[in-house]
């Protein structure tokens, strides 16, 4: 709802040390991620062969980012999470390792021709899309069903992906309304989604960061998902939110 972030793509610089967040939902979200990766790996993970080098680079980048944090313990071959669970660091399955280590989902996009293409992802918390349907598609193809994603927005986003610099990641946020709090919300393009409702029971927001990997040059799109019950928001924010949703439908 902020004027600084409401206009697409609405980005800002990520402060040092503020890329990977751990919040009060960490333990519950990680338990769900563990279960999805174990029981439904084909739905939440995909990695094209050409994306393996950037996926390994991303794993190393994340491990370096959290290495000195007090809530993680990172060794040569194992990592201990803030909830106390210890897991192996598997560099042959880098995205699956990341999916069980931090709350963020990660998408890898590589420049092919005129656009960046989705070549790999760990996506445990999709917000009304499916990884299998988007894999190997360019940005314009990925966003084809999104009405606000006009040709002008597509050009601006592509310029943004081309311009993001190593060591200068960017962030943006979105806001979605749902009638349930499920984090795993896959939906195929052909399946209709209800229009946002001013009285939706839950508000879902994604903090999305755009990072360029220094060695492979691939772009990483990370997603930290937060879901809150609408009635738990302050009353003034509820009113502002209802007006914002009504004006955007």
Quick summary:
The protein has helices at 3-6, 26-39, 41-44, 52-66, 94-99, 131-134, 139-142, 151-163, 235-248; strands at residues 12-13, 45-47, 73-74, 78-80, 86-88, 105-112, 115-122, 170-173, 176-178, 202-212, 219-229. It has 249 residues and is α+β, with helices and mostly antiparallel strands. Strands 1, 2, 6, 7, 8, 9, 10 and 11 form an 8-stranded antiparallel β-sheet that branches. Strands 3-4-5 form a 3-stranded antiparallel β-sheet, with no helix packed on it.
Question: Can you put this structure into words, describing what you see?
Answer:
The protein is of the alpha+beta class. Helices cover 31% and strands 23% of the residues. It is globular, with a radius of gyration of 18 Å.
Radius of gyration: 18 Å
- Major β-sheet annotation: 8 strands, antiparallel
| N-to-C SSE string, H for helix and E for strand | HEHHEHEEEHEEHHHEEEEH
Structural class: alpha+beta
Quote the average pLDDT.
90
Helicity level: 25-40%
Uncertain stretches: none
Number of helices: 9
Beta-strand percent range: 15-25%
Find the count of extended strands (DSSP E, 2+ residues): 11
How far is the first residue's CA from the last residue's CA?
Answer: 14 Å
Q: Which outline best applies?
A: globular
């Amino acid at each position: 709802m902020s004027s600084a972030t409401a206009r697409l793509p609405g980005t800002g610089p990520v402060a040092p040390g503020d890329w990977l967040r751990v919040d009060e939902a960490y333990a519950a979200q990680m338990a769900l991620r563990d279960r999805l990766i174990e029981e439904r790996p084909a739905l939440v993970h995909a990695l094209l062969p050409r994306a393996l080098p950037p996926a390994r680079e991303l794993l190393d980048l994340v491990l370096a980012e959290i290495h000195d944090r007090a809530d993680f313990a990172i060794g040569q071959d194992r990592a201990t999470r803030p909830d106390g669970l210890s897991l192996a660091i598997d560099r042959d399955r880098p995205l699956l390792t990341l999916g069980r280590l931090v709350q963020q989902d990660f998408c890898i996009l590589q420049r092919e021709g005129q656009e960046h293409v989705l070549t790999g992802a760990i996506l445990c918390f999709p917000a009304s899309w499916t990884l299998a349907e988007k894999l190997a598609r360019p940005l314009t193809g990925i966003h084809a069903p999104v009405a606000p994603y006009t040709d002008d927005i597509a050009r601006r986003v592509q310029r943004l992906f081309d311009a993001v610099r190593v060591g200068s990641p960017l962030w943006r946020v979105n806001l979605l309304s749902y009638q349930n709090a499920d984090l795993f919300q896959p939906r195929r393009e052909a399946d209709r989604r209800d229009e946002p409702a001013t009285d939706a029971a839950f508000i879902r927001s994604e903090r999305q960061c755009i990072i360029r990997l220094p060695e492979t040059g691939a772009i990483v799109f990370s997603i930290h998902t937060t879901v809150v019950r609408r009635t738990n928001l302050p009353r003034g924010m509820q009113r502002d939110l209802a007006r914002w949703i009504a004006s955007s439908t």
